[in-house]
Amino acid sequence: METSFVSRGFVSFCVIVFLSHFFLVGAIPIPATYDGFTNPPRPNHEPVLLEGFIDPLCIDCKTAWPTIAKVVAAYGPRLSFVVHPFPVPFHHNAFFAARALHIAASLNSSSVFPLLELIFKNQASFLNDATNEESPASVVSRFVDLAVEIGLPSDKFARGYTQSNTDQATRISFKYGCARYVTSTPSFLVNGVPVTADETWTFEEWEELLDPLTYSVSVETTSESHLSLF
Ligand SMILES: *[C@@H]1O[C@H](CO)[C@@H](O)[C@H](O)[C@H]1NC(C)=O
């Protein structure tokens, strides 16, 4: 009796391990380039496409960022990095924060990552508990203050919060993440395929994932990175 219970338990265990492996590792292998044939044809050495779904007010995203920045810097032109702002609804100020990135992009495209990093630095002051007693207008004005800190014009940035195109762009970012089944942040796609990478991943784990996909020819790094390591 007891033996059969144990063996049935063991079988269930194996099934669970198999299934979780299947779901965690992803259903398909990652192609060396984003799938498909293009017109015009792609260059021989195409960068690997890394997409990150990032909520500026997510603590795990802040934790993940220094490693991500290190990976992006290390791979240089072999990696193309896209941040999709993904404001999760249970962070009350996340939509304001994601909208700040779109406003920054409309004023100076090079200011997006510096602003994201500045929001990370000040993240604690924008979290739910810290802002329960604060008006939305006051929270927005503090995002404007951060934008000014990195050299963006105060009046234009504040006006961005009243313009419908930045509202629309932020909604589209959110919907894009929903359409890609993003349910938590940070989430990552490599060449369009979901990967299990998260804030616990070390630089070495990223290397294990990316090295087989990126070309090994040494390339002089010419692209300027706007990401810092804090
Ligand atoms: C755009 O932002 C970057 C990063 O903050 C800054 O170095 C650059 O001077 C800005 N460009 C303009 C035209 O303001």
UniProtKB/TrEMBL annotation:
Keywords: Signal
Classification via InterPro entries: Thioredoxin-like_fold, Thioredoxin-like_sf
This protein's record includes keyword NAD: no
Segment forming the signal sequence: 1-27
CDD domains in the cross-refs: DsbA_family (cd02972)
Annotated ranges, domain Thioredoxin-like fold: 47-211
Pfam families to which the protein is assigned, alphabetical: Thioredoxin_4
SUPFAM superfamilies tied to this protein: Thioredoxin-like
Domain of life: Eukaryota
Name the record gives this protein: Thioredoxin-like fold domain-containing protein
Species per Swiss-Prot/TrEMBL record: Riccia sorocarpa
